[in-house]
Amino acid sequence: MKHWFTSDHHNLHDNIQKHCNRPFGNVKEQEQCLLDNHNSLVDPKDTVYILGDISMTKEGAISILEKMNGQKYFILGNHDKELVNVIKQYCQVVRDLYDIKINNQKITLCHYMMLTWNCSHYGAWQLFGHSHGTIQPIGLQHDVGVDNNDFKPVSFEQIVEIMKHRKEHHTVNSIVFNGVELK
Predict the structure, then answer these.
(1) Which H or E run contains 107?
(2) How far apart are CA 180 and CA 89, in angstroms?
(3) pLDDT in tens, 52-105
(4) DSSP-assigned letter for residue 40
(5) Domain architecture of the chain: domains with CATH
(6) In sequence order, what are the beta bridge partners of 98?
(7) pTM for the structure as a whole
(8) Which residues, including other chains, have CB under 8 Å from residue 46's CB and lie 6 or more apart?
């Protein structure tokens, strides 16, 4: 059994194509690509953490969640608040914030990037979405959104490799947003 992380599918959301320059002809093509990518990697018995913004509509959420492989754990995003009852039908857990541990690695899951998180100064990771790859991580963080990961979920093993090249979280002096350093 493997652990996977993903975020920001925005299923059947027309405007996401232009907002994020996604390379799909239409929302149906996008849904099929994201679903194919997901199911080619995630086995039905694997654990998948979805860090929000699955869809803008009930129909879009049902359409993708019922077809996605894996035992699903859902962290709510800004577009999911009205969909909680639908999401609960397909997911083991539904939360705003979720602290987990995999192979003794502490991980905080949140739809949003955080400046600090539980045990951030002691090697804990923070995985997030929401920013569609536009914000540089601070310390031991990674944006697991599909726009930042070749439209695929990211495995725990991939994140281990990513984190080997990141510095532990200490003090934030600045943040880089869309290539501009904010102090």
Answers:
(1) strand 105-110
(2) 41
(3) 999 989 998 999 999 999 999 999 999 888 999 999 999 999 999 999 999 999
(4) H
(5) 3-182 (3.60.21.10)
(6) 109
(7) 0.89
(8) 1, 2, 3, 4, 69, 70, 71
